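Board notes (copied after class):
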Amino acid sequence: MKTNQRNVLGVVALLAFFIVGCAQTDTREEKTTEKTETTPPARIAAPQPSPSSKVEQTVGLTKVTLEYSRPAMRGRKIFGDLVPFDKVWRTGANANTKISFDTDITIGETMVKAGSYAIFTKPGEKNWEIMFYSATDNWGTPQKWDDTKVVATASVTPETMPMAIESFTMTFDDLTNNSAVLGMLWENTYVGLPFTVPTDAAVMASIEEVLKGNPNDRAYYDAAVYYKSEGKDINQALTWIDKAVEMSKEQPKFYYLRQQSLIHAKAGKTATAIAAAKQSLELAKKAGNADYVKMNTDSLKDWGAL
């Protein structure tokens, strides 16, 4: 009997030891879990010293996108100091300054395929070299420059501005249907890179395609205005604008008649130009369009009709 009691007591002691051990193990595991699940501190929200900028510009029918960062002067001398002369510069700050075109473009005599390119420059006191580079994934300038990746270069004379530009700025200037100038401004320096786009070929193909079908009055109007603005066959423009005005005579449009007056005047037909301008003037007055009232009035004065 005593032997059985001792056996029972032994079993109870072993179970108690096992339970305590498990509890201690669970506690250690909980403490370990607590340590590994510690949340790292949040990142401070603060402005960047060279904020990024994105500019989208349509030139003719070509969409151009420019992405770059904008360092500031902050009391520093820039060109010839912070940005050394005659060394390749990233043209901005941080990642590559990148320009993208959705059509082919032309820089000087060089055709550049549609796509994205990094812009690198080599500023000089009297001359800047501007380079379009096919690799756009560098941070700053490439560790190893590869001349085979330079798809276009241009030599540009910098201009001195009468005021200082604090933040590096890039612009699209002097826009036409077929061209623009990529501008770079910082400190008191302006550099402009002209480029052309294939607008004329695209528009002429569109005119041919649309007009051989079943064109409406707007198609004739657009074709006539394009011919006038680009200095093409003015007699053809006159035929098309007259067709547009005739097709819309039930609901005459003052802007159609305005263009008709200008095209007739350019073709040397002053009398019909005056008649169209007077009609456009009256319709513009009824529509409350002050801009067209002024433009027609000014033209009629120029043509001696007022």
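Comment from the instructor: The domain at 199-302 is CATH 1.25.40.10 (Serine Threonine Protein Phosphatase 5, Tetratricopeptide repeat). Residues 65 and 289 are 34 Å apart (CA to CA).
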